[in-house]
Amino acid sequence: MPEAMPGLERSVQFKPNDFDSASMHTRHVLASQANTCEAARRALLSQGYLVSSATADSVTGRKYYQPQHDVHYEVEMRVVCAPEGQGDARTSAFASALQDRYVIKKVNNSASLGVGGLGSVSLPVSATDDTLVKVGSETISDAQFYERFFQLFQRYVRLAPAGSAPMPMPEAVKPAPPPATASAVAAPAASGAPLPLQEREAVQRADAAGPDAATRPVEQ
């Protein structure tokens, strides 16, 4: 029965405090996107993080902790670098960390040992192995944790002045339409659809020039 499942006998209330403040995870940097991520990579390496991925727009590092003999923590730090405005002179750095908690569990393994000289007699053999079991995963929400990271981070890159507004996002550049050709201009006319005034004048000039106008020699 679902009512008998563990954890359902009590009511667990969880209210995340997301979107309260953007300053804890974000810093604005007076540097290019590639230099910003390189500064994040150096900051993580200086603290013993194992960097598993480092590109021009993101860096990911992992560090392992064992505060007790039977408790194990893994912290994964991820920094994403996004350019601001036009050019590549200012970048936003977004940092977030994920914490996984493991405990050591003892697992009993059993096997049978057959003795050929005694016939089909089997002797039970048992052993106990220690294995790590994941018991929790949570995004770190400690403001001091990120503050210490950014204090180390700004040793390798220059931050924008406090209180300065971020630059607007760069607008996507729309590709220019291809130039109209004589066949493209004549196609709507053949279908019977009305043409704009400029296109009608272009068709009239092409008809007046004749089909051999493109091959006529230019008079000197």
Q: In sequence order, what are the helices and strands, one letter per element?
A: EHEEEEEHHH
End-to-end CA span: 99 Å
What CATH first level of one domain would be assigned?
A: Alpha Beta
Q: Provide the low-confidence segments as ranges.
A: 1-8
User: Count the helices. How many?
Assistant: 4
Structural class: alpha+beta
| Second-tier CATH architecture of one domain | 2-Layer Sandwich
Name the shape in a single word.
Answer: elongated
Which band does the percent of strand residues land in? 25-35%
Q: Give me the count of strands.
A: 6
What gyration radius follows from the Cα positions, in whole Å?
34 Å
User: Could you please say which CATH topology of one domain applies here?
Assistant: TATA-Binding Protein
What does this structure look like?
This protein has four helices and six strands, in the order βαβββββααα. The model is unreliable at 1-8 (pLDDT under 50). Strands 1, 2, 3, 4, 5 and 6 form a six-stranded antiparallel β-sheet that branches. With 220 residues, the chain is an alpha+beta fold. Among the domains are: 21-104 and 131-153, TATA-Binding Protein, CATH 3.30.310; 179-208, no CATH class.
Topology (elements, then pairings):
Elements: E1 26-29, H1 33-46, E2 50-54, E3 58-68, E4 71-83, E5 91-114, E6 122-139, H2 143-153, H3 182-190, H4 197-209
Antiparallel strand pairs: 1-5, 2-3, 3-4, 4-5, 5-6
Quick overview of this protein structure:
Strands 1, 2, 3, 4, 5 and 6 form a 6-stranded antiparallel β-sheet that branches. It contains 4 helices and 6 strands, in the order βαβββββααα. The chain has 220 residues and is of the alpha+beta class.
